[in-house]
């Protein structure tokens, strides 16, 4: 049966160089997608709806917590059945060795000829629970090692969040894993030189089939414009995405902006044009502002009805360090910047040269907010730090002077070059623990995705995963 949905956007601005008023991806549109832009001068509180459904969708978080508008008539249990599709049985990953040199590693580079056999990182994790099963999705950045092509976004799936299945090529069917979003083919677009996931927010409704839930992906789009002055001001070299040069970087960084794409199955994505002329959601800061160089790693949190919050990072040329800033939105598409909320740490600290790649999670225990972030030292070494805030706005404080996860200590282990791009998942249940997924880099430049687990519900203490304890 062919599934068709119409997505209506109010009142999204259509660029004068729009694509005949249609959303286009750089590869053939699946039968599952038939999308249209519809112009309107009316302002609607709810920015998106699926045909024959209310315009008050639910927004679910990483598990089964569905945040519902007070006037919504939807069931709060609709996210339990998201994606009732079989896990693909092809390209099954071999179990990762639990030796000390691969401790914590849950996803390695792809096999020869795969789209992601050159580099992987930036994991975005979602966990779904139902009475019948547990399902995990991981969207991540990857690129091939056979050429210097631009980076793409892929999807891996799992039944336990540890053993992941991936695809070698494009995820063509509704149950595939693999490559799901490439860079744009439009010369004027902001994302012609690569795309990298930042966050996935899920809109769902009990009035439609679970497989018709709408995924909103906020991502970083890289252009072809190089920032020559940035590497000149650093004591180490960068590339896109931002890896320390001593860990395999090529000394190349391009301007980037935040973008938005939507999907019904997490695999087939349609770009949504933002208000910027390039299709991005918003522009760089003006000359002299802290985010005038680039905008990267947009991570979006739903706070309450009409209050979505985006955390992102840039490089503050005046201060000489990476910083994390914030923007707010009522509809998820039009954003207002609030400014920088975190900068470089104290002298000699693991994050003296700044903070980047934030992941913010609302702590369901105390109602506050937890941020894990990538800290950059003066020599470019990356570690993962922790900050907390009561309201998730500007009052952020570092919890520890030391990182909660450092690079691997044993020489020759897979992540002995640095760790970063954290993604935090709260494992509610009997153990009430946290999982920390992250990018790891070896001294030889080899990359992978790892996992650490907390000591109980203590979000300040993590150990690399070594196996299930029966």
Automatic annotation (TrEMBL):
Give start-end positions of Polar residues composition bias.
69-79
Q: Which superkingdom, per the lineage?
A: Eukaryota
UniProt keywords (A-Z) are: Hydrolase
For this protein, the record's Gene3D superfamilies field holds: Glycosyl hydrolase domain, family 43
Database matches in InterPro entries? Glyco_hydro_beta-prop_sf (IPR023296)
* SUPFAM superfamilies in UniProt: Arabinanase/levansucrase/invertase
Q: Which residues form the signal peptide?
A: none
Q: Name one GO molecular function term.
A: hydrolase activity
Chain segments carrying region Disordered: 69-93
Entry protein name = Glycosyl hydrolase, five-bladed beta-propellor domain-containing protein
